[in-house]
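Tokens for chain A. Residues wanted.
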């Protein structure tokens, strides 16, 4: 009975360890918690851009990876580009903003 118990205990620990490692983040891949956090940040940035009357939310794409927000797309003026970056920086949780927007 004891060898079976030891085997089951070892199998349980192996599965638990594999599960924990599978959810961990690396330099190029987010962990589960970071993915959820980034999704929330992306949603908040999009909402902030939507609530800014001088910006058109459909012109600006927002992506987030480990708290770094990347803005891309085409905007109508340099002022709109600067304003979008400013708005994104004010959102809680944003570590930095990368600006890949272009003026059309």
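Reply:
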């Amino acid at each position: 009975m004891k060898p079976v118990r030891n085997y089951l205990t070892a199998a349980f620990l192996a599965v638990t360890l594999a599960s924990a490692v599978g959810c961990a983040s690396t330099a190029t891949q987010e962990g589960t918690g970071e993915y959820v956090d980034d999704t929330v940040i992306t949603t908040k940035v999009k909402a902030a851009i939507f609530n800014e009357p001088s910006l058109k939310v459909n012109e600006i794409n927002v992506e987030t990876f480990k708290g770094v927000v990347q803005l891309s797309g085409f905007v109508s003026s340099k002022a709109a580009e600067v304003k979008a970056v400013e708005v994104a920086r004010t959102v809680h949780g944003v570590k930095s903003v990368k600006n890949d927007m272009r003026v059309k």
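Residues 72 and 101 are 4 Å apart (CA to CA). The chain has a mean pLDDT of 83.
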